[in-house]
Design goal:
There is one protein chain. By secondary structure, the chain is an alpha+beta fold. Helix content is 42%, strand content 29%. It is built from 3 helices and 4 strands. The longest helix has 35 residues, at 2-36. The termini are far apart. Residues 35-42 have low confidence and may be disordered.
């Protein structure tokens, strides 16, 4: 009986070691696969320190301004409270939202919709010299329209737009960084 217990302990330890080795192997395989395809975790967007602080000029209540400020939190980028105190002025121009129906059933009920968000931006220094030319970002998302209440559909659209603002803010900051380097 003692021999059976020691064999069971040995089997359990060997099984545990094999699982651990398999887990490590799988993790390495995933890491190698994702690094080979160019995947990189998104960290904070760094703007060259000599261009700090930055001022974001936008219309009142701009969702893009909020998304950019949120994206810059935790980075080395400082935000100026007045344009004259900034070295870089990021100017958020026209922002537009629209939606369109992309699928209906035989009764005319909407099955899927497409949401569009567009924003223009450019960047200048404190003297008005162009640092990044005016550019447009367009973000498009489609979503299925489940048979739920109207409030549920509006909540889902608001959530999708929020994600679109974050995506557009990331694109703006990456383009700005590329223009400034």
């Amino acid at each position: 009986m003692e021999n059976t217990r020691s064999q069971a302990k040995h089997f359990t330890a060997a099984s545990h070691a094999e699982r651990r080795a398999l887990t490590i192997t799988l993790m390495l395989a995933v890491l190698l696969t994702t690094s080979a395809c160019g995947f990189k975790l998104r960290g904070p967007v760094e703007i060259p320190p000599e261009l700090n602080p930055m001022y974001i000029q936008s219309s009142p209540g701009s969702p893009m301004r909020g998304a950019i400020v949120q994206r810059l939190q935790g980075s080395q980028v400082q935000l100026a409270s007045k344009p004259q105190d900034a070295r870089v002025i990021l100017r958020i121009g026209n922002e537009s939202r629209s939606s369109r129906v992309i699928a209906v059933d035989q009764n005319g009920k909407v099955l899927a919709s497409e949401l569009h968000y567009g924003v223009t931006f450019d960047a200048v220094d404190a003297k008005g010299k162009q640092l990044a030319p005016q550019q447009t970002i367009d973000v498009v998302r489609s979503y299925e329209n489940p048979d739920v209440e109207v409030l549920g559909k509006e909540s889902e659209a608001a959530l999708i737009y929020s994600e679109m603002f974050t995506d557009a803010a990331n694109r703006i900051l990456y383009r700005l960084r590329a223009a400034l380097l």
